[in-house]
């Protein structure tokens, strides 16, 4: 386009089925809107000839990313609304860009807003808002503080590790360790910006190594996640969540002034050696028998408060489950090899927490709901251009009998299933059929749903596959590990039951197939509340009943007679052992297991966590003639609840409703009756 803005008209072939007229009067404007364009349709050979292009409209297409070589050196205005963009870092190729809009790109988050503010030094308007002041803060203040933190981290932990005369291998090793450490430990800003902070820290650390120490600079600045602390105010996300499910800022509170005294209960007590250690939550730790203590406190969070009130110590927390690790995906954390993100629920909200940093990564609220249960599954979804990608989906359910389906990486509640007319006590996904979801309700039914796989527009179809009739309210459910598509166990208000759930049977509504008898004080009974149920391995079931002070371990294979005929048969549970537990008659304090480490966990009515390492017993139980342990097995350790003070006062009586470890038993998450989530880390 010659200087002076002579009117020009071009006709350019965009694809085999479309032709587009481009009109210019004063500046070169190119509109490619509503053409179903995909990333591969943006031909760099065409765009390289448009060196004076100043305005480009790519809205209402199917773009998932930008090619890195469009070569538009004079581009000032870019519209990418209503696409499927997953990353914004390629926009740095447009250094003169002043106005940018990319609303309704479901995979982009607040972190991407901050990335473009940093990368595009001339950007004034983002999604129609003047961001000049905020962008200057991001480019200057934020960068200055992060640079100071990165430099201090090197000086404190790594400077002395690199010898004056070093080899290339030593340089490579120290660089790898430093980049990993600095991204994990350098934290700054609100939790909603954790990914951006991680991304900038890596960039700054690589520049520091390159320019200060002469180490090779890695230009790869892929998005990474998830650490930070609240040091500056948050900015509202530009995208609204669906329906009444919204992502909100991090209003969690840390509980400070904590005195923690772990206690051991063993048959042979060793001499104690006192020690003091301070956790990241300013928790003062006094350790008894320090060489034996296997876990220490990291964080105490108050993140499910009604109305975000710091005075809320009444909201009950009920369920937590660790997020599965994805093998691939744009949002995978490359630093952490196993999951440290846990979903928790209680009251009107569901939270996602980074256990290492104590950061509340995301929070979802439904004002009229009380959530009782959450569960994860991984779905392979078609995202664009017929490409498939694995994404983690979170199901959350509670008092309203509705299951919410949340695509966490996209901050999007894409649908709901009206599963029951009464509250849902618990939910779980099949380990072999990723779309199969079980919901157990106060209507005395357990339903099996196929939630379907959402398409690229989040359209999905859910269908009910099966209904299991129960004699009383189901409280806990577990699929049998050796045959998860055939048998389901449920702990109910009036006993422990089993169902045949095989779908090739014609009967859609089924009664229970077996009820299990357990020893009572002087007899055998089926009538007792089972409020804790989990498998320790492929065969050993762990269940907790209303009988005070006792947790049973029993054999599924030796208790259930699969060859028997007829329904509603009574079978005696073959008890392998009893675990010593609290003598309380308090119900609904559930248990959990860590099969990989052969641990059982259960909280009590005094805020303590009872831990049982059963690795010395499972081999004997696995033999065909394995005998019942004569004595009750004592806990390996009891984690005592610390002395917590909020505004100088202790919270009310603390019940541990649930306690869950990640699969590798690195973290232990404790949910209480007083709206406090405690996170412990294995030493």
TrEMBL record:
Record-annotated Leucine-rich repeat and WD repeat-containing protein 1 WD domain positions: 294-682
Main location: nucleus
WD repeats: 417-451
UniProt record, GO biological process: chromatin organization; DNA replication; establishment of protein localization to chromatin
Compartment(s): Chromosome, Centromere, Kinetochore; Chromosome, Telomere; Cytoplasm, Cytoskeleton, Microtubule organizing center, Centrosome; Nucleus
Bias kind Polar residues: ranges: 271-284
Biased amino acid composition, Acidic residues: 219-235
PANTHER family, per database record: LEUCINE-RICH REPEAT AND WD REPEAT-CONTAINING PROTEIN 1 (PTHR24370:SF10), OPTICIN (PTHR24370)
Protein name listed in UniProt: Leucine-rich repeat and WD repeat-containing protein 1
């Amino acid at each position: 386009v010659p200087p002076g803005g002579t009117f020009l008209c071009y006709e350019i072939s965009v694809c085999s089925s479309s032709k587009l007229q481009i009109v210019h009067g004063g500046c070169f404007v190119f509109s490619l809107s509503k053409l179903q364009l995909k990333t591969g349709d943006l031909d760099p050979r065409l765009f390289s000839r448009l060196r004076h292009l100043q305005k480009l409209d790519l809205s209402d297409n199917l773009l998932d990313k930008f090619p890195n070589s469009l070569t538009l050196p004079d581009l000032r205005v870019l519209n990418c609304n209503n696409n499927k963009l997953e990353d914004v870092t390629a926009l740095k190729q447009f250094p003169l860009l002043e106005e940018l809009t990319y609303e309704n790109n479901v995979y982009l988050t607040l972190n991407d807003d901050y990335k473009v503010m940093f990368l595009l030094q001339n950007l004034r308007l983002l999604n129609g808002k003047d961001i000049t002041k905020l962008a200057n803060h991001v480019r200057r203040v934020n960068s200055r503080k992060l640079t100071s933190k990165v430099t201090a981290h090197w000086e404190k932990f790594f400077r002395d590790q690199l010898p004056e005369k070093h080899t290339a291998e030593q340089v490579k090793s120290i660089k790898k360790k430093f980049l990993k450490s600095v991204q994990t430990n350098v934290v700054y800003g609100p939790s909603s910006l954790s990914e951006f902070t991680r991304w900038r820290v890596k960039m700054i650390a690589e520049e520091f190594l390159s320019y200060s120490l002469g180490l090779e600079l890695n230009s790869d600045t892929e998005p990474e996640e998830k650490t930070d602390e609240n040091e500056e105010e948050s900015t509202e996300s530009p995208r609204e969540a669906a329906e009444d499910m919204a992502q909100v800022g991090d209003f969690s509170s840390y509980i400070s002034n904590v005195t923690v005294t772990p206690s051991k209960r063993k048959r042979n007590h060793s001499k104690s050696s006192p020690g003091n250690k301070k956790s990241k939550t300013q928790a003062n730790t006094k350790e008894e028998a320090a060489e034996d203590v296997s876990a220490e406190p990291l964080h105490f969070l108050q993140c499910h408060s009604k109305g975000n009130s710091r005075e809320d110590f009444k909201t009950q927390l009920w369920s937590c489950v660790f997020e599965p690790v994805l093998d691939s995906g744009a949002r995978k954390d490359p630093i952490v090899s196993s999951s440290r993100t846990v979903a928790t629920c209680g009251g009107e909200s569901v939270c996602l927490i980074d256990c290492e940093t104590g950061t509340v990564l995301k929070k979802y609220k439904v004002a009229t709901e009380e959530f009782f249960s959450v569960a994860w599954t991984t779905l392979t979804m078609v995202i664009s251009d017929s490409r498939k990608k694995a994404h983690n989906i979170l199901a959350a359910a509670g008092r309203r009998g509705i299951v919410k389906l949340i695509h966490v990486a996209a901050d999007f509640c894409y649908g709901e299933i009206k599963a029951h007319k009464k509250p849902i006590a618990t939910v779980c996904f099949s380990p072999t059929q990723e779309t199969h979801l079980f919901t157990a309700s106060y209507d005395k039914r357990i339903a099996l749903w196929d939630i379907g796989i959402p398409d690229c527009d989040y359209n999905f179809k859910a269908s009910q596959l099966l209904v299991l009739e129960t004699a009383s309210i189901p409280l806990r459910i577990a699929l049998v590990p050796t045959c998860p598509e055939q048998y389901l166990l449920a702990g109910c208000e009036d006993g422990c039951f089993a169902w045949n759930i095989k779908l090739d049977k014609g009967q859609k509504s089924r009664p229970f197939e077996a009820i299990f008898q357990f020893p009572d004080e002087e007899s055998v009974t089926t009538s007792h509340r089972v409020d804790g149920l989990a498998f320790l391995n492929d065969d050993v079931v762990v269940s907790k009943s209303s009988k005070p002070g006792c947790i049973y371990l029993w054999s599924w294979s030796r208790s259930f007679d699969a060859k028997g005929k007829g329904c509603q048969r009574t079978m005696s549970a073959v008890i392998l052992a009893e675990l010593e537990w609290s003598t309380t008659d308090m119900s609904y304090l559930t248990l959990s297991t860590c099969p990989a480490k052969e641990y059982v966990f259960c909280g009590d009515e005094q805020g303590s966590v009872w831990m049982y390492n059963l690795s010395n017993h499972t081999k004997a139980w696995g033999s065909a003639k394995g005998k019942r342990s004569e004595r009750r097995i004592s806990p390996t350790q009891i984690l005592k609840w610390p002395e917590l003070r909020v505004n100088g006062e202790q919270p009310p009586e603390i019940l541990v409703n649930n306690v869950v470890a990640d699969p590798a038993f690195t973290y232990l998450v404790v949910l209480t009756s007083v709206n406090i989530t405690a996170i412990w880390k294995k030493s």
